[in-house]
């Protein structure tokens, strides 16, 4: 079974530029998550989708970050404009369902963003 | 939201030693996971363990949900066990601890 796919793996941009990340979850997984992991910290949830609807985006900086999950499969996360403090690894994860008896999350390899 | 605390923050072992990593959480949880983040940044699932005990080779985990903690045991550690170990409480939203950085020396 294929895992969670992400691209690109690395991205270097200048501040105030825009950037987009792509995620393809495990086939059949209804729930998709985007996390931000700053060096030396644990991942922090940015946004959570159930199919193509947003379940939780309370920690998403909506003035510069946006995300969508069209057709309930792939997802893109965009930053516009980027700031220095956005330098981090952006992780995508998926699980079979939102909640209940079993919602183990599986993570992709991440995209390492450096903002200069 | 739920708070997740991990201890110790850093651990250095000689190859072959055993270790115990602890995860405390501030409220009852229905679901809990342990991950290993390797030096390349990949988060690898170790255990999905809302309660009880599970074992996988040299690793085992125990969650006592009523007392709000989980333990990860690593026996006969190897250099490839090095990295950061995270526990995460799967409650909306999912909360990660700050991690335990394990270094296993040959």
Question: In words, what does this structure look like?
Answer:
Chain A has strands spanning 5-7, 10-13, 19-24, 31-37, 44-50, 53-56, 65-68, 75-79, 88-95, 106-107, 111-115. With 116 residues, chain A is mostly beta strands. In chain A, the strands form 2 sheets. In chain A, strands 2, 4, 5, 6, 9, 10 and 11 form a 7-stranded mixed β-sheet that branches. Chain A is globular, with a radius of gyration of 13 Å. The mean pLDDT of chain A is 92. In chain B, strands 2, 4, 5, 9, 10 and 11 form a 6-stranded mixed β-sheet that branches. In chain B, strands 1-3-8-7-6 form a 5-stranded antiparallel β-sheet, with no helix packed on it. The mean pLDDT of chain B is 93. The interface between A and B is medium-sized, with 25 and 20 residues.
Give a short summary of the structure.
The complex is a heterodimer of chains A (116) and B (106). Chain A has 116 residues and is mainly beta.
Would you list the SSEs of chain B in sequence order as H and E?
Answer: EEEEEEEEEEE
Radius of gyration of chain A over alpha carbons? 13 Å
What count of helical segments of chain B does DSSP give?
0
Low-confidence stretches of chain B: none
Q: Give the strand tally of chain A.
A: 11
What is the percentage of strand-forming residues of chain A?
over 45%
Shape of chain B: globular
Separation, N- and C-terminal Cα atoms of chain A = 37 Å
Order of helices and strands of chain A: EEEEEEEEEEE
- Low-pLDDT stretches of chain A are none
Number of beta strands of chain B: 11
């Amino acid at each position: 079974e294929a895992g969670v796919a992400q691209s690109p793996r690395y991205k270097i941009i200048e501040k105030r530029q825009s950037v987009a990340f792509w995620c393809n979850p495990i086939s059949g997984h209804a729930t998709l998550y985007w996390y931000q992991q700053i060096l030396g910290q644990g991942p922090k949830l940015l946004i959570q989708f159930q199919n193509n609807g947003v379940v939780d985006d309370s920690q998403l900086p909506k003035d510069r970050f946006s995300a969508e999950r069209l057709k309930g499969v792939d997802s893109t996360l965009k930053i516009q404009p980027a700031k220095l403090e956005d330098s981090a690894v952006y992780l995508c994860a998926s699980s079979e369902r939102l909640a209940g008896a079993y919602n183990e999350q599986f993570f992709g390899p991440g995209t390492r963003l450096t903002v200069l | 939201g739920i708070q997740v605390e991990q201890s110790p923050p850093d651990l250095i072992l000689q190859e072959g030693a055993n270790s115990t990593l602890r995860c405390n959480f501030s409220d009852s949880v229905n679901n809990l996971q342990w991950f290993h983040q390797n030096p390349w940044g990949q988060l690898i699932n170790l255990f999905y363990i809302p309660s009880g005990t599970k074992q996988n080779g040299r690793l085992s985990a125990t969650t006592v949900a009523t007392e709000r903690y989980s333990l990860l045991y690593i026996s006969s550690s190897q250099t490839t066990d090095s990295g950061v170990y995270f526990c995460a409480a799967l409650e909306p939203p999912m909360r990660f601890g700050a991690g335990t950085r394990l270094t296993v020396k040959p």
